[in-house]
Amino acid sequence: MTSPQNWVAPTCRGLADLLEAVPGQSWDAPSLCEKWLVRHVIAHVTMPVRLSPERFGAEMAAAGGDFTVLSDTVAERDASLPIADLLDQLRSPSLHAWQPPGGGAAGALSHAVIHSLDVTIALGRPAVAPDGAISAVLDRLAAAGGAMFGLDLTGVRLEAADGAASGLDLAGVAAEVADTVWSWGEGRTVRAERTALVALLSGRTLPDGSRLPRA
Q1: Which of 95, 128, 161 is the last residue of a domain?
Q2: Which is it for the CA torsion 19, 21, 27, 33, positive or negative?
Q3: 56: buried, middle or exposed (CB in 10 Å: 19+, 13-18, 0-12)?
Q4: What H or E segment, with its residue span, contains residue 20?
Q5: Does residue 176 have a pLDDT over 70?
Q6: Which of 1, 125, 177, 209 is the most buried (most CB within 10 A)?
Q7: Same domain, yes or no, for 181 and 197?
Q8: Domain named Mycothiol-dependent maleylpyruvate isomerase metal-binding: which ranges (predicted)?
Q9: For residue range 143-174, what is the model confidence (pLDDT) as tens digits?
Q10: Are residues 108 and 149 in the same domain?
C-alpha cells in the first residue's frame, strides 16, 4: 500500500507545473479558500519551507496562539513573493517531507490535496493530485463525518460518480447507479465527482454555489 506521504510530492509538483503553465493573471484569481487568491493559497501551502520551528513559534506567539490568524498573516505577507520562488518551494523536498503537528502523513496529504483543489477547481483545471491520493483524502474526510471542517452531514448521502456534474441534488433518497464509484451515509443525495466531494467536505463553496451544511 502506498504511504500517504508518497503522494504529497507528485501533488505539489503537479500544482507547480500547472501554475507555471497558466497565464500570470491566474495567480490573482479567487481560490476556493474564502478571501484568498490563488497566490495566497500557494503562500500558505509552502509556508513550512520558509518557517523553521523557531520562527513558526515566534509567528504563533505574535498571532496570540491563533493558527488562523497566523495563516492569514503569512499568506497575505508572502503572497507577494516572486512567483518563481513560490514554484521552487512547491517543488522542495522539504515541503514533500513535512507533516503538520499531530497530523502525520495523512494530515500532510490532506493539506496538499485539499489546497491543490482550492486552486484547480477554482481555475477550472483538472486535478493534479494522483487518483489514489484523492480517494484517500475523500475516505478520511467522510470517516470524520464532517467534524474536521464543522459540517453537519446528518441525513446526507454522498455519492461519487465518474463524470458526475459538480453540485448538489437533494431532491430525493439516493439509489445505487451503475456509475457510482463511492458512497457514504444515508439520506438526501449529494452527487458529484470525487474532487468536488473533497472540496465540499473541506467546507468549501464550489464555483456553482454548492456547499454542505454547517454544524
Answers
A1: 128
A2: negative
A3: middle
A4: helix 8-21
A5: no
A6: 125
A7: yes
A8: 10-92
A9: 999 999 999 999 999 999 876 654 444 333 33
A10: no
Q: Are residues 124 and 147 in the same domain?
A: no
Place of cell 513560490: 86
How is the chain split among helix, strand and coil, in percent rounded to 5? 55, 10, 35
Nearest to 73 by CA among 52, 51, 94: 51
pTM of the model: 0.91
130 by DSSP, 3-state: which?
coil
- DSSP summary character for residue 4: G
Of 160, 215, 152, 151, nearest in space to 190 by CA: 160
**Count of domains forming the chain:** 2
Place of cell 505577507: 77
Grouping H, G, I as helix, E, B as strand and the rest as coil, residue 157 is strand
Residue whose grid cell is 498571532 = 63
